[in-house]
């Protein structure tokens, strides 16, 4: 860390590594229906696949989605409010991470099942479009 | 049974055991996002759980859902149009069956994963409400 994140603001308390300002459901509040709804959109499914592909945390701006910024923000909010991702401010960046542990505890195996199904569909689609 | 279903209609061709009038996506058209959307509603999830609980086919009226008839019809339509269930007229009854084979071929293991997650959530809810 060091001095990174210094923005010259008068109030200089370091940004706490918590989900400041952004409401998250606690684990017990996460509903299967909400998780499935969150993943029922192609863009949100894509975001989750990218988050699952090894990266611990990604800022919203690191996703190159073919939608407007406000739509992107909306998708991240749906993912957060359903309990699929955790969004944390780090300085001015909103960082996103999958809530793997919470989902795994509530619904063992479900996330991997969904990611496998999504990968399968993507592969089928790629083959159909002549990439395979 | 016997003469049940006789409504005195002039045209008496037997109802074909096909999905007459009701549009269904063919297997290749079924999208993961659509399946997840279909299951993202508590009533629809409940319908699917009941269909999965051993019964091959059930008519819409066999489901005792705490919603209006038109809402019930809507839910069944969403399930059909997403490819989760097949609806077939048998006489005047609309019969519903899970498209297990199609879903299994497209997304192996997914349906069972989702049913397991739904059962887990239902059990947790029952325990919380003092049934356990």
Write a brief structural summary.
Two copies of one chain form a homodimer. The first copy, chain A, has five helices and three strands.
Please provide a written account of the structure.
Chain A contains 5 helices and 3 strands. The first copy, chain A, is mostly helical. Chain A has a domain of 92 residues: Winged helix-like DNA-binding domain superfamily/Winged helix DNA-binding domain (Arc Repressor Mutant, subunit A), CATH 1.10.10. In chain A, strands 1-3-2 form a 3-stranded antiparallel beta sheet. The longest helix of chain A is centred in the last third of the chain and has 19 residues. Chain A starts with 31 loop residues before the first helix and ends with a helix. The relative contact order of chain A is 0.17. At the A-B interface, helix 1 and helix 5 of A face helix 1 and helix 5 of B.
User: How would you state the average pLDDT of chain A, rounded?
Assistant: 86
Share in helix of chain A: 40-55%
Low-confidence stretches of chain A: 1-12
Q: Work out the number of β strands of chain A.
A: 3
CATH architecture of the domain at 27-118 in chain A: Orthogonal Bundle
The CATH class of the domain at 27-118 in chain A? Mainly Alpha
Sheet with the most strands of chain A?
Answer: 3 strands, antiparallel
Based on CA atoms alone, the radius of gyration of chain A comes out at 17 Å
Side-by-side strand order of the widest sheet of chain A: 1-3-2
Give the count of helical stretches of chain A. 5
- CATH homologous superfamily caption of the domain at 27-118 in chain A: Winged helix-like DNA-binding domain superfamily/Winged helix DNA-binding domain
Distance between the termini of chain A: 44 Å
* Quaternary structure: homodimer
Biggest interface, chains and residues, is: A-B, 23 and 23 residues
- Tell me, briefly, the overall form of chain A: globular
């Amino acid at each position: 860390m060091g001095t990174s994140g210094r923005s010259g603001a008068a109030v200089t308390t370091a940004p706490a590594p918590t989900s400041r300002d952004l409401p998250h459901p606690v684990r017990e509040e996460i509903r299967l229906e909400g998780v499935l709804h969150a993943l029922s959109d192609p863009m949100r499914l894509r975001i989750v696949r990218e988050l699952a592909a090894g990266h611990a945390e990604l800022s919203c701006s690191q996703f190159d989605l073919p939608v407007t910024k406000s739509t992107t923000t909306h998708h991240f909010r749906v993912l957060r409010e359903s309990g699929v991702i955790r969004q944390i401010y780090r300085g001015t960046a909103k960082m996103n991470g999958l809530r793997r542990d919470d989902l795994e505890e509530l619904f063992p195996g479900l996330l991997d099942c969904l990611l496998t199904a999504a990968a399968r569909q993507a592969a089928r689609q790629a083959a159909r479009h002549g990439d395979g």
